[in-house]
Amino acid sequence: MRQAAVGFQCPSCVNEGARSTRSGRTAYGGTRSANPALTSQVLIGLNVLVWLLITLTGGAASRWVDRLALLPDGAVFRLPDGTLMPVEGVSDGAYWQLLTSMFTHVDLLHIGFNMLALWFLGPQLEATIGRSRFLALYFVSGLVGSAFVYWLAPIHTSTVGASGAIFGLMGALLIIAIKVGADFSPILMWLGLNVVLTVVGRGFISWQGHLGGLVGGVLIALVIAYSPRKQRSLWQGIGIGALSVLVLAAFVARTLALV
Length: 259
Fold this sequence. Notes:
63% of the residues lie in helices and 5% in strands. It is mainly alpha-helical. β1 and β2 (8-9) form a beta hairpin.
C-alpha cells in the first residue's frame, strides 16, 4: 500500500488487475477501461448535481430531500409554521428512495468526504476489475446499505448519502489487496478509523448504511476475485445476481412487514 492524501493506493491491486489473460481484459475478466476515472467522474457529477438542486431549493428544508431520501415508512411532519406535511416512505410505494438516497446529500462536508473517497477509490478499482464490474460493485453495495437501513434504522428517520457504496469500495479494495498478497494493513487501519467514526457519531451517522455497504462490497469482491478462472464471467454473474436477488427479497420482506 502507498499512503495518499485520502486513504491509500494499492499499486499491486492495479497491476494485478491490469494483467490480462487475453487482449483488452483485466485479470478478473473485465474489459480494461481506457479511462478508469471516467465512471467515478460521472458518479461524482450526478451527486454534485443533486446536491446543488437541494441547496438551491432550500437545503435541508427542500422538498427534494423528502422525495429522494430513504424513509422506511411514511410520516407526517409538522413544519415551523404549524402546517402538517405528509412524506411518503419506501413502504408506501416510494421504492426509488432505495436508489436515489445514494445520490442525495445535504451537508457540504458529507458530500465532500464521500466524493473525495470515490475520486480516490473508484479509478483504482475500475482499473483493477473493469467498468461493468465496478458499476455492479458500487450500486449493489449501495443497495445492500439501503437494505440494512430499511430493516434496522428507525422507520420515521430519513437517511441520505453515498456512504454505503463508498464503504463497499473500501471493503472490495481490502479483499483484492488480500487476494494479490499486498500489504493490506493500511487499508485495514483506514477502515478501522472509519468504523470508529461511525460508532462515535452513530447519533447522526447511518451505521446501518455503512455496515450494509461494507458487507455488500466484501461479498461482491469475493465473488469477483475468487470465482474459478474457467467460465469466470459466468460465475461472477451468478454470484452478483444471487446477491441482488437476496437484496430484492429483503426489500419485499421489509415492505410486507411494515404495511
